[in-house]
Amino acid sequence: MAEQQTPSAENQSSSTTPVSLTLLDPDVLECPICCEPLKIPIFQCENGHLACSQCCEKVKKICPSCKSPNGYSRCRAMERVIEACRVSCPNSKYGCKENTSFGNRSSHEKQCLFAPCFCPVPLNDCNYVGSDKNLRNHIRAKHKDHVIPIVFDTPLTLVMGSSEKIVCFQEKKDGELFVVQAFRKSYGLAVSVNCIAPSAHGLGRFSCCMDVIIDPCIKLKQAFTVREIQKKIHEEPKDSFMLIPSHMLMLTDWSFGIDICFSRGMDSFIRA
């Protein structure tokens, strides 16, 4: 009677040890129809052409590559490949150490707190890009004289001129960066407030209250949540801004003062 051989501990460990591979063409792991990363379940026609589950339904189970009318069956082999694949975050160079399954990489990218943030200081020679934390340190080291220090819940007065303008603020303790931009239009001036940070944080971390003083008799007041964006905007804002009508600004030749106050959470709405 032959003796049954059992795998050695060395062979067992080598069979489960991850192996680093280089994929020369990442497109092979994408659905050829929608070009999105393949996710389980994955289907194939009788000639082996792949499709994700959503595309399989959209094409009514007729393969767009070979027009096979026989529908699709599960491609278990490709599902095992996708399930075994792990990819590093594209923001790894900014500090993210997350490895995700190939099919879920886009979901992680939307939530990644290491998404690159761009220096908002209006200097032509600065093209710095880095993580939220590193950008704060960059501002303190390189642009200390180009930002206005602020303390949460402490108002300060900002004087705006007649032309489009950008003003940068940095919180003294933790270093959060805020950008106030003015966009001049025929109907008035749109003044936006944003925080330079990964959008994965979502709304609600910060709020802002602005009091615009046209003259002693004309004042505007508004509070809003501050959006978090990775770079300053270059077009008229659609939210998180105050509109100052042109007929008011004509009284002061488009120059005016703003009392502005930044807060954590929704405290600005209480103040307003």
UniProtKB/TrEMBL annotation:
GO molecular function: ubiquitin protein ligase activity; zinc ion binding
Biological process annotations from GO: protein ubiquitination
Pfam family, one: Sina_RING
EC number: 2.3.2.27
Domain RING-type residue range list: 31-67
UniProt superkingdom: Eukaryota
Pathway info: Protein modification; protein ubiquitination
Enzyme class: transferase
Start and end residues of each SIAH-type domain: 84-144
UniProt keywords, alphabetically: Metal-binding, Transferase, Ubl conjugation pathway, Zinc, Zinc-finger
Catalytic activity: S-ubiquitinyl-[E2 ubiquitin-conjugating enzyme]-L-cysteine + [acceptor protein]-L-lysine = [E2 ubiquitin-conjugating enzyme]-L-cysteine + N(6)-ubiquitinyl-[acceptor protein]-L-lysine
Keyword Zinc: yes
Role description: E3 ubiquitin-protein ligase that mediates ubiquitination and subsequent proteasomal degradation of target proteins. E3 ubiquitin ligases accept ubiquitin from an E2 ubiquitin-conjugating enzyme in the form of a thioester and then directly transfers the ubiquitin to targeted substrates. It probably triggers the ubiquitin-mediated degradation of different substrates.
Family: Belongs to the SINA (Seven in absentia) family.
Identification of the protein by name: RING-type E3 ubiquitin transferase
Protein species of origin: Brassica napus
Name of the gene this protein is made from: BnaA07g10190D
